[in-house]
Structure formats: C-alpha cells, structure tokens
Amino acid sequence: MQESDLKLLHEKVPKLLISLALPMILAQMVNALYNIVDRIYISYIPNIGTTALTGVGICFPILMLISAFSALLGQGGAPLASIRLGAKKEKEAQKIVGNCFFSLTVCAILLTLIFYMFSKPILFAFGASNDTIGYAQSYLNIYLIGTIFVQYSLGLNPFINAQGKTKIGMATVAIGAILNLLLDPLFIFVFHLGVRGAALATVISQGVSALWVIRYLTSEKSKLRITREDFRFDKRIFWMVISLGISPFIMNSTDSLVTTVFNIQLSTMGGDLYVGAMVVLSSVMQLILMPLNGLNNGAQPIISYNYGAGVYSRVRQAVKTSFMINMSFTILMCLLCVFLPQLLYTWFTPDEQLRTILAQVMPLYYFGIFMFGAQSSLQNAFLSLGQAKVSLVLALLRKVILLIPLIYIIPAVTNSGVNGVFCAEGIADILAGTTTTICFLIIGKKLLNKPDKRQSKG
What we know:
Layout (H helix, E strand, L loop, with lengths): L2 H8 L2 H31 L5 H38 L3 H28 L1 H7 L7 H11 L3 H15 L4 H25 L3 H24 L17 H35 L2 H38 L2 H28 L2 H4 L6 H15 L5 H13 L3 H27 L3 H31 L10
C-alpha cells in the first residue's frame, strides 16, 4: 500500500483535510487570477476601459460553458477513479482516466468549431450591444484557440488530486496563472494589443498548464496514468462518468446561463454600465468560490477513498469538518461584502460612476452568500459519494429552479428595477443552502450511518 493510501485511510481527518486542501485552496485562488487579472488590466486601458471590460464580460458565459465540459468529464471521472483506488481496482481506475482523456480531446474540437462558427449571434444573444460587440469578439476569437488546453488542464487535473497529490495539482494551476499574471501587462500595455493581448496571455498560460498535467499523468510517479492502450472510447465507462459528472457540469453550465440572464436583464433595465457592474460582482464571486472549491477538492479524495474502503466514520468526520470550514468562510465574506464592499470593488475599476453603482448593489447581491457554504460542501459530499442523481437535483435547484425565475419575478412583483435583479442572488442562496442541508441530514444518514468495514487509526 502506497504512502498516500495509508494517509487517506489512517491520518487524522482534520490534519489530512488541511494538508490536502491548502494546496488546492492556493491553486484555486491562483486560478481565479486567470480571468480576474484580465478584467483588472482591461478596466485600466485608457479611454475604453469600462466599455472593453463590459465587452469581455459578455464572453464569460461561453468561457464558463467550455469549463463546464471539462468538469463534466474531469470531476465526473476523478471520484470514480478514486473510489476504485480505495477498492483496490487499479486497472478499472486506469481505464477511466484514458476514456476521459479521449473524450476531452473530442469535446475540445467540437466546442472550438461551434463557437467559432456562431460567435457573433451568440454574443448578441448573451447581452452584447453595438458598443461592446467588437471587444467581445476580439477576445473570444483568440481565446477559442486554447479550448483544448482548457479541457486538458481543468479536465485532467482532478485525476492528480484524486490520488491525494494536491501539491502537484496546485502546481498545474499556479504555473499557468503566474505566467498569465506576467504576460497580461506585457501584451496589453507594452505591445498595445488590448483585449486581444489579454486573451493571448490566457491561451499561452493554459497551454503551459496543460503540458504540465499531461507530463505528470504520463509519468511513473502517477498511480493513474494516461496510456495509449486506454486512450479510447468505452461506452460503459463514458456513461458512468457522465452520470456523475452531470452535476458539476450543471453547476458550471448554469453559471453560464445565469450570467447570460443577468446580463440581458441588466442591459434592458439599466444599460451597459450595470452589465459592467455584474462583471465586477462575478469577479468577487470567483474570489469567494475558489477557496471553497479548493477545500472541497481537498475533501473529495478523503470522502471517496474511505467510502470505497468502507471506513464510514472517517467519511462522516471529513464531511463535518469541511462543512464547518465552508460555513465559517462564507459568513465572513457575507459580512465583508455587505458592510465593507468598497474594500473589494475598488480593485476592479477606476471608474467612479461604476464604483457608485457597485456600492449600492453589492450588499444586495451578497446578503445571502453565508448559506452558500452549506450548499457547496454538502453538494460536494454527495458528488464524492457517487450520488449522481441527488447531486444533479441540488445543482439545478439553486440556479435553474430558484435563481433564474427570481431574476424576473422580484423586479416585476416589487417594482424594484435593477435592485430586484441583484437581490435574487441572495434569496436563492438562502433557499438552496437550507434545502441542501436538510437533504444531506436525511440521505447522508442512510449512506453513512454504518459500522466501518475496516479499522481506522485516525
């Protein structure tokens, strides 16, 4: 039994969770720099910064959708591979990796072709105006070149984390993000490439990350390796991966749908400046989500491996610890966003008019974010336990069932205009977080209230 296996089975859960989660939290925070740094630099382009920022923001639903497909295959396959490692079924785990690598390649080719062919009508449908469409297309047309890099770096990295190798997983993200941080000002301001420079910097950075993750997964150091023999389509494995990956796919793709609905509503009711405000709010949301994602990614191999090994007491402890940390963080961020929003939004724009709008709408948008900690940690627990159907329903609940209707209903019923649009987010967070907690108390008890099959030392 390898050292990483022994740690997953026997090391004290809080210590193990922190050791696995910290690299992932750092990785996710650094990953947030990809798009956030682009937005900050773009907002400071002389004369056109705010309009260019809004134009690039229109592209984000497409970027989220591309990432959603990497989550479909990567986050769908990694827990399955981890569970099989825990059950000592290494060959099955290996086949899952190869099938996902093949599927990610095909997916990248199809996405690139579709978005290149229909980019302009899609961007207009997503809320672009005549003033912002040029910036949106300039950014997107270059970004799409790197679609295959996004699929590999985001879709394969979970297989590194699933082995408990979170420091290697952190390096995958950190290398690309730091490179992007250095290339952005060079391409945007020194070479005067504007939004095209921001996109080019991102493509190069993602390419380096993709090479790093492939290099590790083809090396002898990896328990889950990419091989020619397993680089093939297996229908049985594919549908197993899809059935579990549909939940993170829904979470990511509905981010795209929600952003589009927000943009359309705000463009209609308030204009481009309010769409620009939504870009900033989305950037702050990334700063909140990335640490949560890192913590959940750190918890995933502990939950999945021990569930596969039948050590249910460690699974319960891992879920409880993750839940408490998630909730503590989101309560803190809620207080900051509601009472001291200027500490956050001033980083993203020098435009005083946009800052005035953000001071008004940020507390409305984030007042319910404290309950997202429950939604995030417990939905990840369902996913890590292989509960695809439950995870899917909960993924749909917050954004599709609650948030999207509320974006339209609240302004119409209360006659509150754009303020009602922003309030929809907080209300959906509270309702979804409460429902997810109740579901886990009921379903989780049935799954985990069992004696351990294997004795645990920690």
